[in-house]
Amino acid sequence: MPLPLSYPEVDSSNTTGCFDLTCPGFVQTSNKVALGAAIYPISTSGGLPYQITVYIYKDTNTSNWWVQYNGVNIGYWPPDLFGALRYHAESVEWGGEVYSSKIGTPPHTATAMGNGQFPNWDDYGCRSGCVKRMRVRENSLDLRFPEFVNAYADEYRCYDVFYIEDYVEDPEFYYGGPGKSLWCP
């Protein structure tokens, strides 16, 4: 098994600012997925929608937090990396993220989220980015739909998100946007 690169200070990311797979300490155990690379195929406007399954879970024996992609365990975060998360998660988030050092001020990044279109739920399903079948595994090991859900977008003229809970079997999030555009200078 590969050794982790290094361990960030165990301070719940207050000093490191670290929150994703770029954080030091993640142990990759499979070479089937290149971390940080684009995942193909990509859904396109007018084309077929594609989906992936991502599962993050805590191993009750080792307390490692594992990342699973399409049924393959690709790696884990050891419990020593975390403060309170060593025991359990307080919240869960789904969605997309685009970095811009100019939040709220032009020029905004031209990086698209999803396929670059604003979200639009229609008969074809997911046109930009979406999250379906959201579940949280509690201590009982049952997968349950989260009790409290809300949708949030920092730069709503650049990216948007909406949450549908009525008239669908499972609640769903739709998100995406073009980044810098006529609406987002």
Explain this structure to me?
By secondary structure, this protein is mainly beta. It has no helices and nine strands. The strands form three sheets. A four-stranded antiparallel sheet has the order 1-4-3-2, with no helix packed on it. A three-stranded antiparallel sheet has the order 5-9-8, with no helix packed on it. A hairpin with a 7-residue loop joins strand 8 and strand 9.
Layout of secondary structure:
Elements: E1 27-28, E2 54-58, E3 65-69, E4 72-77, E5 129-132, E6 136-137, E7 143-144, E8 160-164, E9 172-176
Antiparallel strand pairs: 1-4, 2-3, 3-4, 5-9, 6-7, 8-9
Largest sheet: 4 strands, antiparallel
Number of helices: 0
Strand content: 15-25%
Could you state the oligomeric state of the chains shown? single chain
Helical proportion? under 10%
In angstroms, what separates the terminal alpha carbons? Answer: 47 Å
Averaging pLDDT over every residue, what do you get? 78
- Which regions have little confidence, pLDDT < 50, spanning 5+ residues? 1-11
Order of helices and strands: EEEEEEEEE
Radius of gyration: 18 Å
What is the structure about, briefly put?
The chain has 185 residues and is mainly beta. The protein has strands at residues 27-28, 54-58, 65-69, 72-77, 129-132, 136-137, 143-144, 160-164, 172-176.
Key phrases:
185 residues; mainly beta; 4-stranded antiparallel β-sheet; disordered N terminus; globular; 3-stranded antiparallel β-sheet
